[in-house]
Amino acid sequence: MSQPVIRTEALTRDFGSLRAVDTLSIEVSPGTIFGFLGPNGSGKTTTIRMLLGLLEPSAGRAEVLGCDTRTQADWIRLRAGALLEHHGLYERFSAWDNLEFYGRIWRLPRRDRRERIEELLRRLGLWERRRESVGQWSRGMKQKLAVARAMLHRPAVLFLDEPTAGLDPVAAAALREDLAALARQEGVTVFLTTHNLAEAEKLCQAVAVISAGRLLAVGHPDQLRARAGLRAEISGRNIQPGVLEALRARAEVSAAQIRDGRLALELRPGAELAPLVSLLVAAGVEIEEVRRASLEDVFLTLIEEEQRCSPISSR
Amino acid sequence: MFADLITMIWKEWKELLLSRGGLRGGLISAVVIPLGMLGVFLPWQNGADWVSTPLLAAGWSWLPLLIILGLVADSFAGERERKTLETLLASRLSDRAILFGKMAALVGYGWGLTLGSLMLGTLTVNLTHRQQEWLLPSAHTVAVIVVFGLLTSLLAAAGGMLVSLRASSVRQAAQINSLALLALILSAVSAGKLMPAPWKASLVLAFTGPNLLRTELAIAAALVALDAALVSAAMARFQRARLILD
What are the start-end ranges of the H helices in chain A? Predict the structure, then answer.
């Protein structure tokens, strides 16, 4: 099995009495987009900063590309790209000059640098506006340019800290598409923090959920769904009480109720939804929509469970 | 390291020029106007005396300090304020490349403008007050301006950068730098007024005649020590974690 690109072992960071990251242990496989999910203030940015060697852990350790973040931070930063909390662009500079500066920093030879800048700007649809100062640009365009800057030197691993935060849905969707395409084409491993569950679901092959600095779950989005138990919501007409009884009698159904006019089902692990839909149709229910539990449901369940288990947070 | 320094200087100078409303506007306000004032207007007004007065060496030696103190506040506090610092710190650049690159850009600008205005001033005097022979500052004056100009450039850049590293905003850094300059000027003026007469006489003696070179070397040595202390302090202060969390 290939070596993980990122590995943390009981990684912990305290700020005085506040524990921002609490004994975090994760592994990120090469070539994957790894989603790091958590609500605001859950320790996502602090984790990225530690992985880039910008902050020292209070305890535990982390390795990126086989390099220790405490002792080989320079080596990690040489091979990593980052789009952090802020886009970090020089707003008085043109798009070209922003990339030119970082291309020089990464010592790309002049010809390669120019070709690479042109390639990325064209791919992201920014080529025609390369001479404009980026201060005049929309937030979505700035984020795209920041992605281009992070990928300029073809890093082996890319850290993205909430790249679509603050973007309108159209700009966020466009950036997500570009990100997915670039990551696929360049084979880069992406560590993506977000509190947007739909984003993680669309982009990530693996996700970790953290809250108050603690890891709550990690795995493929489908695995997390299964772990939290399969849920489904069915909306339609003619849902009679007798149908509820029939559903509750099924072995694969652990709970069934009508909530806000919709049929809410909780299923046991391994349960198939299709036979239940057939049962409903046979019972005369006119089904309009069947919605399986999303990652968001899983996330909310995990956060609720976490808050129930530790009502007084350690943070 | 050298390539990284050049990269940082490129970026700093470009930002300096673009901060004045575009490249052309920046060139006019950051280069053409200062050179016009210091290298054309003043020498033209003073005529042939401009190259021979001892005030030239004294004034031009400290000129970079004034030029750089007006800019240095922006170096780190500005990057922090504009949210570009963390991305720069997350790049492959070493601490020294970032710190010394910024310092070199300021020293290069302040010292370069001083030496440029000295050369332009000499040309202006010779064009506007033509005499049979070329009017040139003495070798001693030129040496003093070159050496002291460099040392005072470094003093302003390192000291100002230390303030900028600690300040939470550009405004705060600029205020501290202005207060430090004011304190320096006021203490020099007060010392001149309050100094007992025999001390004054000794001071005048130190800056005239055969003692001048010895005095200049002593001041240069003190400036070198001060510069070294400030650069060391700035290096110690430059810690990525502190810069991010401050």
Answer: 44-51, 73-79, 95-105, 110-123, 139-151, 169-186, 197-203, 221-227, 241-248, 274-282, 295-309
Q: State how beta strands A262-267 and A206-211 pair.
A: unpaired
Q: Does A89 touch chain B (CB under 8 A)?
A: yes
Q: What is the pLDDT of residues B200-236, one digit of tens each?
A: 888 888 887 778 888 889 999 999 999 999 999 999 9
Q: Do B90 and A74 touch (CB under 8 A)?
A: no
**Interatomic CA distance for residues A276 and A265, integer angstroms:** 10
What residues of chain B score a pLDDT lower than 50? none
Q: How far from the centroid of its chain's Cα atoms is residue B103's Cα?
A: 11
Banded pLDDT at A313 (limits 50, 70, 90): very low
ipTM of the complex: 0.88
Residue B206 to residue A43: CA distance in whole angstroms:
63
pLDDT digits (tens, 9 = 90+) for A243-299: 888 888 888 888 888 887 788 888 877 777 888 888 888 888 888 888 776 677 777
| A100, A110 Cβ separation under 8 angstroms | no
3-state secondary structure (DSSP) of residue A90: coil
Give the Cα separation of A190 and A80 in Å (integer).
10
Contact B86 A85 (CB under 8 A): yes
* Exposure class string for A228-243: b at 16+ Cβ within 10 A, else e: bbbbbbbebeebeeeb
Of the candidates B129, B110, B104, B111, the residue with the CA atom closest to the CA atom of residue B43: B129
Smallest Cα distance from B72 to chain A, Å: 18
